[in-house]
Amino acid sequence: MIVQDAPNDALSDVLRLVDAEAIASIALTAGGDWAVRFPESDFVTFCAVRRGSCWLVKDDGTEPLWLVEGDCFAAIRGEFGLASSREVRVAATQMFRPDDQARQYGSGNDVYLIGGNVRFDTANGGILTDVLPPMLLISGEAAEAIHWLLDQLDKEWRRAEPGARIACNDLLRLMFIHALRTYIAELPPSSGNWLAALSDPHVGKAFEAIHADPVRNWTLTDLASLASQSRSTFATHFKATVGVSPIHYVSRWKVRLAAARLRRGRQPISSVAASLGFLSDSAFSATFRRIMGITPTEYRALHLLPNADPLGHRGDLERSRQSPDASAAG
Question: Where do the HTH araC/xylS-type domain residues begin and end (predicted)?
């Protein structure tokens, strides 16, 4: 029997680094005249209309959006509200709390929504959320994969069988990943957003190689060869797509990996530097400070987790490969 791990990819690495975790799966039923406001939070709120329709009122001054059955959205940042009509005042309240799994608003059950929150590591979440728009919108016509997941989420929610809570949260996490895929597929090629590299036929090959072997001291020649482009063409193409030069991205990635290890483990800083291919502690410290604004020692003092592993081998950040250990990063 041949046992083969699922292939690794850059987005999976980033999601591991930011520690994406679904923390609540919630159902909302509403009818008549109703409105509810979702205050800004540190979470990404995912919501799907399963029955009926309602208005999505954003806080950026843009026109409200009419959501119908099958539509989904992920609120990355900023306040927003849901309402039965544009005339109903959206009152302040708190929604989708982990300790309160079902809500009823107004009278009746004209509208049924389901969703929840996705939480990220506070020190690293910006790697992903900073390159996303305030709101990801997925129309019902474009969300076939999400619809299947929503059907399963609905079943788990309604049946409440053993393990349903974990199943709901895992399904919600999958829905968020599909929402990301939808957004990535719509990104223009030269957006200056590293997510665009994931689907670029040239930059993508180099991008995945960097993620697959972050310990290697990549050169522009190495990466251009993988992309099947000349050095100058590749460098220009990479910067237009990702927003930074190839070598800067390599350095930034290594530093992100190092920061995660410093935050989640207590191994010596020199060991962290060596594990990521830095030739000296001084080179590591200088690169880290240039990118993060502080030294590795200062970063650890500010961000070390209370339950940090003395050996620094926590969770999914350490992956065994044929090459030296590679951690997830973005």
Answer: 204-302
